[in-house]
Amino acid sequence: MTKPMPPHEVTRRPRLVIVGLGLAGGAMAAAAQAHPRIELVGAVEPDPAIRERFTAVTGLPAYADLDPVLADPEVDAVYLATPHQLHAEQTVRSAAAGKHILVEKPMALTVADCDAMVAAADAAGVALVVGHTHGFSPAVAEIGRLVRSGAFGRLGMIAAWNYTDFLYRPRRPEELDTSRGGGILFNQIPHQVDMIRTIATAPVTSVRAHAVRLDPARPTEGAATALLGFADGAAATLTYSGYDHFDSDELHDWVAEGGSVKTPAHGSARAGLADLSAEAERQARTDRLSFGRRKVARPAHQPHFGELVVTCAGADLRPGTDDVVAYTDAGVRHLPLTEHQWWPGRGDVLAEFAAAIDGTPVVHDGRFGRDTVIVSLAIAESARTGQEIRLEAPEPTPTPETTEGPVHV
Ligand SMILES: NC(=O)c1ccc[n+]([C@@H]2O[C@H](COP(=O)([O-])OP(=O)(O)OC[C@H]3O[C@@H](n4cnc5c(N)ncnc54)[C@H](O)[C@@H]3O)[C@@H](O)[C@H]2O)c1
């Protein structure tokens, strides 16, 4: 593993408030509190017990409502880690208040909402970044840089697959209702689409997909597979299953998604939900996964999202546990992550957000997030209709200025 980079000298760091202290907000809080380019100054969370825990752990204020934060001139930026359906309205409101916005994936549930979010940020002159996704993972960013450098020849295809216990983690009721943004198509597929689009050398122009609901007790899509075609003739396949049977971390040296070392526990997520009512399950989510309930520490290894193999004319490339592995004509090479973040993954998100606030063009901005939503919705539509979806207005190809990957602290 490469050595963590020392923080840069900074004069005035943007002051950030986390909005929503559930699983995502809790995971970001520790990285944000320690980040050299962001200053965490508070949180918004309707649940009083979580607010109390946040203040006890961090010494920072926590508010029940977003309004006082938006009215506070001492706050520069918000990280919206709230349920999907709140992202659009909270982004538009935050932009109108002049706050820079980091919003969780999926950016929104409709393209119209994404457009409104981009327009609001543009009109207010504030930064809009969409993350965390595994498009920010250092090995993915590094593979993107290697592909675009041409060092391994033309990109031919990308294969991504991930098998998890996603569907059996305790869920809010809407997370099991596709019409309200539930299931893997809105929640997990955007990670794979973002990884693939971070590496690809042209826009997605066609989508063919198949998705399944295999458990009537969890009536939403829990597994899917898709074929994406790109304007330059390359293609990508993605496969995801969240049914808590096979765990593809087995193929990643039992390193978990976040980069920590993992103990195999097949079937334990299902067992942990046995006989819970919907309300008890919602409460279990808060009790088990919200801020302060899970151990969050700087990961020992690189974050990843299952297996990813990128085929170029001269080599296959894949993220290793601590590096990028290149299978070349001359044998296997382990390429170090030279621009490795001190807190890989979420540290990269915050670094890219800080860069965007400084006015630097970044990869995962609002337009990139919107185009990932367009591809994810096309996957859902193709799975529903059985038709190939042609994307008439493909997302723009990243320009050279915006393809250098995460900006490093
Ligand atoms: N990038 C990742 O790896 C990752 C991981 C988990 C979740 N997410 C995303 O983060 C978002 C939140 O998901 P989660 O799993 O943390 O959900 P969660 O249910 O664990 O947490 C959501 C939190 O938001 C709070 N909340 C609800 N309404 C609010 C409001 N109006 N203002 C402020 N807070 C409010 C809830 O009380 C809860 O504590 C989702 O869009 C999800 O897709 C991303």
Verbal overview:
This protein is of the alpha/beta class. The protein folds into two domains: 7-134 and 344-371, NAD(P)-binding Rossmann-like Domain (Rossmann fold); 135-336, 2-Layer Sandwich (Dihydrodipicolinate Reductase, domain 2). 31% of the residues lie in helices and 20% in strands. The strands form two sheets. Strands 14-13-12-11-7-10-9-8-15 form a nine-stranded mixed sheet. Helix 4 packs parallel to helix 5 and helix 8 packs across helix 12 (366-385). Bound molecules: nicotinamide-adenine-dinucleotide. Residues 19-25, 44-47, 50, 66, 81-84, 86, 104-105, 132-133, 172, 187, 285, 289-290 line the site of nicotinamide-adenine-dinucleotide. Nicotinamide-adenine-dinucleotide binds at residues 19-25, 44-47, 50, 66, 81-84, 86, 104-105, 132-133, 172, 187, 285, 289-290.
Structure described in brief:
This protein is an alpha/beta fold and 409 residues long. It has helices at residues 23-33, 48-58, 67-70, 87-96, 111-124, 138-149, 184-187, 189-199, 268-273, 278-289, 346-357, 366-385, and strands at residues 15-19, 39-44, 62-63, 77-80, 100-103, 128-130, 155-163, 204-212, 223-230, 235-241, 307-312, 315-319, 323-328, 331-336, 389-390.
Keywords:
disordered C terminus; Rossmann fold; disordered N terminus; alpha/beta; Dihydrodipicolinate Reductase, domain 2; 2 domains; six-stranded parallel sheet; binds nicotinamide-adenine-dinucleotide; 12 helices; 409 residues
